[in-house]
Amino acid sequence: MAMRLFSSSPPPPLLSSPATKTSSAALSSLRLRRARPLAAAAAAGGPEREDEAVGAGPFDRRMEEIAKKVPLFEPEMGEPAATADRPLPINLELWLHRAKVHTRKYEFADAEKLLDKCMLYWPEDGRPYVALGKLYSKQSRFDKARAAYERGCQATQGENPYIWQCWAVLESRSGSIRRARELFDAATVADAKHIAAWHGWAILEIKQGNIKKARNLLAKGLKYCGGNEYIYQTLALLEARAERFEQARTLFQQATQCNPKSCASWLSWAQVEMRAENNAMARKLFEKAVQASPKNRFSWHVWALFEANQGNTDKARKLFKIGHAVNPRDPVILQSLALLEYNCASPNVARVLFRKASQIDPRHQPVWIAWGWMEWKEGNERTARSLYQRALSVNSTNECAARCLQAWGVLEQRVGNYTAARRLLRSSLNINSQSEVTWLTWAALEEEQGDPVRAEEIRDLYFQQRIEVVDDASWVMGFLDIIDPALDSVKKLLNIDRPSGPARQGNATSTAEQDGTTTMTPAAAGELPGSSTAEGSSTANLDSIRSAEGLSTSDLDGIVDPRAPYTRQPESDLDVDGFIRRRLGLDPAELDAVLEGSDPRGVISQRRTRRLTRKPLPLLPVP
Asked: Coil, strand or helix: which one is 155?
């Protein structure tokens, strides 16, 4: 009878109450799923399983209770904290702008903090990674820049072409040509319409002497992106190198039709006309460049150099002063003006201008080199040596350092220090082994010392190691392999008949930032290595493809529309005085006062001083 007091049926499972189900449905569902296997096991196991359940220790029962309280998966938990608490999207734009301002002020730590916040809340946006990589590159922290780009490619799943392209430019500048090609290829795969990737890749191949490959890449850029000013401009400069000036003019005209406000296209075209000795046309193009971008420092600078080479000293001096008034922080304009004054037998005025340019930017090497060259010509060898040494203290491994060492070697050769001259020339060749001037200077030094055999060996060594650039005429077949060989299909694919604006998918100017050189030749300018440099005046500057010497270009009839022949630009005489009064707010009579009264240490852009005071926003009524 006593045995009947205990039921042999298994105990009911521990289920949640109905109130709990109504209050937390997801958690109750998970607890039900955990309780059912236990009840089924107890029902199927009989007394033995019941004994095992009853005989469980306190530790096992405690772990079971903890397992019931901890959910395995809850879809209702929502997004991560960084995404759930994400600020408004306008904060991303504000933080990126503030980071850019901090970078301009060399406040790199503050800019880095802002970019880290952008990447924390918006990891899928590629702009913070691009800005951070450029920030590290500006500080010469290239390893961290690569890490930032790699992190950005992973965060965007490789679909952002801007990150690939910036990474490729970094590798190209570092000398990793093979890696740069792979990254440019990845950028074009991510977005075939990213014009900056095609153009930057083509510039890389031009520097390496692969003219055929560069043309194929430019043709692909036209195919996928349509008419683009930078593509047409680079093709025109290649044609100008081959002295096919009519073809180059047609391409330049198409470039200016794509973007009439492109100062770079007008300046490149003007330099080509200068090379063709068409000076009247070059002057008209310089006027158009100034009208397209009145505050562009390169337009006034290159135009002034042109007038100086033509012998128009007064006009060149006036253009230099206008350029300095518009861009008071540019040391290159003052450097060129100093060389012009020295050429006009005013070395004291030139010294004042050189000193002012060096105070504006003490790290601008060409200023120190040109100043040292002038002091050497004036017979001040000790001052020249100190100035050359100051230039090398800025950077002793770049192209400017190679030119500085070559100029210093010539100085030591002229004063009779042949051992020091050889050492300096050898150091220059260690930096730039392709400098013909340095090799021939060294050979002339050996001949002057009475060793013609050694001089001939040096010349032979130069011809053996120099890089030959050959333009393969079979590039047309490579172009036709890409698109339909029929001319009508070519026009349709390249959008030649329809004028199109510049592509906005990529900033080709920031993509392939090249250093062009424009030299104003004073007396014995062939001995001046520190020529005035207009840095970055064009992404496809005539000197950015200096390695393409001696190429023989094939016909570009497949790219240029034969129904759009070159038409001469209309004649226009620009009133410079009236133009600067109307567009720049400058008084021509006060240009000398602006030049003499500007303080290099506290110079402020006149554009800021003329800026109107900002009116306060009206107060809205509070509801």
From this structure: helix
* Angular region, 158: left φ>0, alpha ψ -120 to 50, beta rest: left
Q: Does residue 515 sit in helix, strand or coil?
A: strand
Determine the Cα–Cα distance for residues 325 and 338; give it in Å rounded to an integer: 15
Q: How much is the average pLDDT of 227-232?
A: 89
DSSP string across 206-259: HHTT-HHHHHHHHHHHHHHH-S-HHHHHHHHHHHHHTT-HHHHHHHHHHHHHH-
Tokens at residue 67, please? 């397992």
Q: 613 burial class (0-12, 13-18, 19+ CB within 10 angstroms)? A: exposed
> Which residues does residue 515 pair with via DSSP β-bridges, in sequence order?
535
- Which of 282, 259, 279, 278 shows the shortest CA–CA distance to 269? 282
CB 175 within 8 A of CB 154: no
CA 457 vs. chain centroid, Å, equals 41
The rounded Cα 259 to chain-centroid distance in angstroms is: 20
Query: Angle formed by the axes of helices 127-138 and 161-174, to 10°?
Result: 20
Report the alpha-carbon distance of residue 318 to residue 344 in Å, rounded: 14
Structure tokens at 140: 């010469």
> Which tens digit of pLDDT belongs to each residue from 50-91?
444 445 577 677 666 665 654 444 444 444 444 557 889 899
Angle between the N-to-C axes of helices 399-415 and 381-394, in degrees from 0 to 180, rounded to the nearest 10: 160
β-sheet bridge partners, residue 107 = none
Distance in angstroms (rounded) separating the CA atoms of residues 302 and 537 = 9
* pTM exceeds 0.85 for this model: no
Q: CB–CB of 595/338 below 8 Å? A: no
Cβ-Cβ contacts under 8 Å for 584 (sequence gap 6 or more): 294, 295, 322, 325, 326
Q: Is the pLDDT of residue 146 over 90?
A: yes
Mean pLDDT across 515-527: 36
- The residue with tokens 């074009």 is 188
List all residues 6 or more positions away from 443 whose beta carbon is below 8 Å from its beta carbon: 455, 456, 458, 459, 462
Q: Which of 382, 424, 383 is nearest to 403 (CA)?
A: 424
- Quickly tell me which residue has 């039921």 as its tokens: 7
